[in-house]
Amino acid sequence: MSLLEVEALTVRFGGLTAVNEVSFSVEEGMIAGLIGPNGAGKTTCFSLITGFLPPSGGRVRFRGRPLTGLPPHRIAREGVARTFQKTSLFPRLTVRENVMIGEQARLVPRVWPALARTAAQRRELTAVRERAVDVLDLVAMSAVLDVEARTLSYGEQRHLAIAIALASRPALLLLDEPAAGLTPTESRRLMELIERIRRSGVTVLLVEHDMKVVMGICDRIVVLDHGQKIAEGAPREIRRHPDVIRVYLGEATG
Amino acid sequence: MTIVVLQQVVNGVTIGVVYALIAIGLTLVFGILDVINFAHGEFYMLGAFLTYSLTVGLGLDYFVALAVTIVGSAGAGLIAERLAVRPLKGRHMFTVVLSTLGLSIFLQNGALLLWGPDPREIELAWGGRPLVLGGVVITFLRLAVLAMGAALMIALTWFIRRTRWGMAMRAVAGNRDAAALMGIPVDRVYAITFAVGTGIAGVAGGLLGAMFTIEPTMGEWAVVKAFCVVVMGGMGNLPGAVLGGIILGVAESLGAGFLPGGASYKDGIGYAILIVVLLYSPQGLFGRGA
Amino acid sequence: MPTARTAAGVGGVAAAVALPLLLSGPYHRHVLVLAGLFVLMALGFDLVLGYLGELSLGHAAFFGIGAYTTALLTRNFGVPFPVDLLLAAAVTGFFGVLIGAPSLRLKGPYFAIVTFGFAEILRLIVLNWTSVTRGPMGLPDIPHIGLGPFRVHTELGYYYLVLGLIGVAILVTRRLLDSTVGHAFLAIRENEELAAAAGIPTFRFKLIAFVIGMIFTGAAGSIYARYVHFVDPTALSFYYTVTVVSMVIVGGQGSIAGTVLGALVFTLVPEYLRVAERARLVIFGAFLMAAIVFMPEGLRGLWRRARQGRPDRVPA
């Protein structure tokens, strides 16, 4: 059984079919890539998988359990985390607080114990604070713990977004264009980070335009064009696939 | 029986046209400035008092007074925009809401101070004369209100479609930054939009003020109606506001006539519609527009 | 906790307790009682505005529900204190769920308008359901608070009672905010979409904050009914909503000190403006506009800038 199974996923907006019967699966421990020209429907797929968009048809299964129709916060609780194409943070909270919020997927904050300030509550809060530091270590950001998120540089903000997603200890991490706007050095560091993440036991599915990153770390690649899957396979197969080459002709990629 | 229904409908359409006029200003300001002007009703009220002062106080002809009222209300709107809205550009929407609430308190109590709480009336000699069309009675005043309302709406449509300022307004409503980049003086467009909105509200006050009584708190009632209509028609949607106003007027009229205990809950009809629309179709029955 | 803040807090409490004893005359104490009630309402409102980021314009309705519940329970059923207070809080909480559940699906201006609509419908019902509420004539002769041998019937007595309730409200608010629940609220305010993606059931938490905030308000209404012995539909008037909104926004949202400050300013200013009786509200309106234009971060922001020369930071 694959970790993530996407079956005939479809979504229609009025007359436009943005995602058309897309099917693929992601195995545990894999780093998978979802690529395609602009407007192919990649981010839409992410939104469908993570519950931000209801599908018009098809199914998504995670660890054998159905994900379709669940609201985003429940899907996060099941163990699927995502980042957003446009860097999404909690701007006026500190770096540490940002990550602490990511951990909420693992706990269920309860009102009455919070009011009563039970010993268990206080222990939980301390544990959350400490775990946040561990996650920030993984993304190499522990130096800036108590700085407001909105004051970070672009690259640091992207790392923070990943940290927030990791804080929920997902089994599957969806990264939406993590390399966007990064310098070549930063991209290389990102690739190392994603490898570290995989080694810590998290499966990764990423949407990306930067071919160096995709070809460099992905085990498996799915190619979309105009909402449909046109190819799937290992990087060297995809590199030589005639349909993929045709679709990307004229596109300036890395 | 049909005659009774028809009569209610005719009454409802007349009031509905006035509702539409009040709402047009509100929806215009929201569509173009992204501001909800809670003081909108007060400009309606001021317009009513202005018309009253001109006709009863100075003895001017009613229609001349209305013309002066449009200009006066628009002028007041320009001042208000400069003081209470423009300085808050870029700040959170709530601050502007609160500022217009403050303005509303200021204007309402200012009117109370100037004119006192007693209700006034504009008596027009020719107003009460009835015209009977196939069993349905309509007074000359109401006919005049209908005609003037329609004329104003046509004039506004022409202004927005055919003049340069109208095009500027539409551009800003569509994409403010792009409009600014193309050299459109956004601040001035805001000011003019606001003034147009308050001007129309003012003349609506003058029209409705001749039909019913005038007193300083009438603005509260008006702004609520305007909200109902704007929500129904879709924020920023002008034809929607017209349709919404008429629908509200007719719904209230029929409701008051036929529902048990209808008269006292008449205002509640508007609120009920407002809530139902917001919960099931927040973008309005006719969708957003500009 | 930094010692400066603790010192300020202790100082504030001491001042609050001592204040009415320093003032002579029942009128000033009366103003303090009113201020206290408004602080309670404002704390409830700030929970929704400052910590969730949503503007609710239905505040006055919940105040009125609390007041009318107490009025009806004490007049018709002789319910004693504090049972009526608890029941008033419960009823307000119930209406909070009733109105909050559909409304919180909306955001921004739509949420503001729909809460306004609900509040006005409630006001109309109270105004017209004369068999129960006696309509505009109101419900008079609401008894004072009697707890065994103790009777609360002076301004001083009510003041300390209200102070006690404010203390409870602040305790509840602080406890909530200092926990994972509070973090969830802040996350929702800062970025609701991300909060949902991070696993927070946003709708549930918005509703919780809303209901708690409205319970504070209903409690204020309940005490108000006892204090003035009379309740009529003007208790639900929009004016109270505007006043509370002003207090929180001008005082500084998302901060307890700011809310208290704002509540004090906005109770004292209109009351002491009574000398200019007829122009009172005109001045108030102008004052409100000026305050918003010239104090973008509220009174608290002004205070912080003066002390540190740094723009306001959100307390977490």
- Radius of gyration of chain C from the CA trace? 19 Å
Major sheet of chain B: 2 strands, antiparallel
Q: What proportion of the residues of chain C form beta strands (DSSP E)? A: under 5%
Given this structure, which CATH class of chain B is correct? Mainly Alpha
CATH architecture of chain B: Orthogonal Bundle
* Named CATH topology of chain B: ABC transporter involved in vitamin B12 uptake, BtuC
Terminal CA distance of chain B: 40 Å
Tertiary shape of chain B: globular
Beta-strand segment tally of chain C: 2
Described by strand count, sense and barrel closure, the largest sheet of chain C is: 2 strands, antiparallel
| Secondary-structure class of chain C | mainly alpha
Largest interface: B-C, 42 and 38 residues
Globular, elongated, flat, extended or rod-shaped: what is the shape of chain C? globular
Query: What is the typical, i.e. mean, pLDDT of chain B?
Result: 86
Series of secondary-structure elements of chain C, N-terminal to C-terminal: HHHHHHEEHHHHHHHH
Please provide the ordered H/E string of secondary-structure elements of chain B.
HHHHEEHHHHHHH
Beta-strand portion of chain B reads under 5%
Number of strands of chain B: 2
Count of DSSP helices of chain B?
Answer: 11
Molecular structure report:
The complex is a heterotrimer of chains A (254), B (290) and C (316). Chain A is an alpha/beta fold and 254 residues long. In chain A, 39% of the residues lie in helices and 23% in strands. Chain A contains ten helices and ten strands. In chain A, a hairpin with a 2-residue loop joins strand 1 (4-13) and strand 2. In chain A, helix 3 (95-102) crosses helix 5, helix 3 packs parallel to helix 6 (154-167) and helix 5 packs across helix 6. The model of chain A has no long low-confidence stretch (mean pLDDT 86). With 290 residues, chain B is mostly helical. Chain B has a single domain (2-280), classed as ABC transporter involved in vitamin B12 uptake, BtuC, CATH 1.10.3470. Helices cover 74% and strands 3% of the residues of chain B. Chain B contains eleven helices and two strands, in the order H-H-H-H-E-E-H-H-H-H-H-H-H. Chain B has helices at 2-33, 40-57, 62-85, 93-115, 140-162, 164-174, 176-181, 186-211, 218-233, 238-258, 266-280, and strands at 130-133, 136-139. Chain B has a two-stranded antiparallel ribbon with strand order 1-2. Chain B is globular. With 316 residues, chain C is mostly helical. Chain C has a domain at 24-241. Chain C contains 14 helices and two strands; from the N terminus they run H-H-H-H-H-H-E-E-H-H-H-H-H-H-H-H. Chain C has helices spanning 3-22, 26-52, 59-77, 83-103, 108-128, 130-133, 155-177, 180-190, 192-197, 202-228, 238-251, 256-272, 280-294, 298-308, and strands at 145-147, 150-152. Chain C has a two-stranded antiparallel sheet. The longest helix of chain C is centred in the N-terminal third of the chain and has 27 residues, at 26-52. Chain C starts with a helix and ends in an 8-residue tail after the last helix. Mean pLDDT of chain C is 82; it is low at 310-316. The interface between B and C is large, with 42 and 38 residues.
